[in-house]
Amino acid sequence: MTDDTFYESVDFHRVKTSRLSTVYRHSGRDWQDAESIVFIHGSLSSSRWWEPALASFQELMPSKYACYAPDLRSYGDADPLPIRGMDSMSEDVLSVMDSIGIRQAHIVGWSMGGGPATQLVLDHPDRALSLTLVSSVAPSGLPVEQIPAKREVVAQAIHRGDLETLARIVRAGNFREGRFPLNGSPPANALFYYLLQSVLQMQNYPGDENNNEGGTMAMVNFHVAERCAAIRVPVLSLHGDHDAIIPNEYFVKIRQPWPPHLFHEVIFEGAAHTPHVEQPRRFAVALDEFFSNI
């Protein structure tokens, strides 16, 4: 593990685009030599949370893909710019792709990151090979009654640097109890605390919600379902069957707007909100199967 990545097979790069300064993590080939995959992280996280998947792609299929995961604005090592809707983040991701030189990629979004992933594919269809939504916000947005209730508690814990409180909240929301991280297991716990550090990096969580700013309000105000029927690339919804954040019935809302012949769904038994962290090798194989059949 280096200061910037947990896995030796994952590289860390800084980039200044036309919109912001940020970082991205990379594994596998360069974009000139392979199909590119762009991974977009969720709330209370950063591109660190994609490292288990990036390392698994490198381990299982090292010559097949070029994997990239940027930090979104206000998260990780990116500029702490205000989030004003999903398009503020999707355009940032596009600017990172432009700065690297990526013309087309498979776009993968997790949780809140499914919003900018969807927005990018709808706004710039020529840049996407496919869309994968991992435990994602639906194109119809986040119902107000599902707004996370512990935002102020989390914000105060971040301000205090209270790692114990953050660990309890993040662990309960993202992982199936007793599966990952494993109690008393140094490797799993080392990775967990590496991922948890990204929560402490957040400088303006939850954002100015009274003025519709921040990641939560971006999800509440996300309404693009009527545009989804026009999509021309395959869509995969992948999620666990023990998700403590998103109820199973909510995933029906993810399925409904897409053309049936382009929509696919994979459910990971035993996984919670983070199948790419809990079962990263299986996750890489599932995505490879999806991409290979396009």
Describe what you observe in this structure.
With 294 residues, the chain is α/β, with parallel strands linked by helices. The protein contains 10 helices and 8 strands. It has helices at 51-60, 86-100, 114-123, 151-160, 163-174, 186-200, 215-220, 251-255, 275-278, 280-292, and strands at residues 11-16, 21-28, 35-40, 65-70, 105-110, 128-134, 235-240, 263-268. An 8-stranded mixed sheet has the order 1-2-4-3-5-6-7-8, with helices on both faces. A hairpin with a 4-residue loop joins strand 1 (11-16) and strand 2 (21-28). Helix 1 (51-60) packs across helix 10 (280-292), helix 2 (86-100) packs across helix 3 and helix 5 packs across helix 6. The longest helix is centred in the N-terminal third of the chain and has 15 residues, at 86-100.
The largest sheet has its strands arranged as: 1-2-4-3-5-6-7-8
- Helical content stands at 25-40%
Radius of gyration from CA coordinates = 17 Å
Helix-strand sequence: EEEHEHEHEHHHHEHEHH
Between the first and last Cα atoms, what is the distance in angstroms? 35 Å
Q: What shape does the CA trace take?
A: globular
Q: Catalogue the unreliable spans.
A: none
Query: How many distinct helices?
Result: 10
Strand fraction: 15-25%
Largest sheet: 8 strands, mixed
The chain-level mean pLDDT equals 94
What structural class do the secondary elements suggest? alpha/beta
Q: Count every beta strand, where a strand is a DSSP E run of 2 or more residues.
A: 8
What is the strand and helix layout of this fold?
Layout: E1 11-16, E2 21-28, E3 35-40, H1 51-60, E4 65-70, H2 86-100, E5 105-110, H3 114-123, E6 128-134, H4 151-160, H5 163-174, H6 186-200, H7 215-220, E7 235-240, H8 251-255, E8 263-268, H9 275-278, H10 280-292
Parallel strand pairs: 3-4, 3-5, 5-6, 6-7, 7-8
Antiparallel strand pairs: 1-2, 2-4
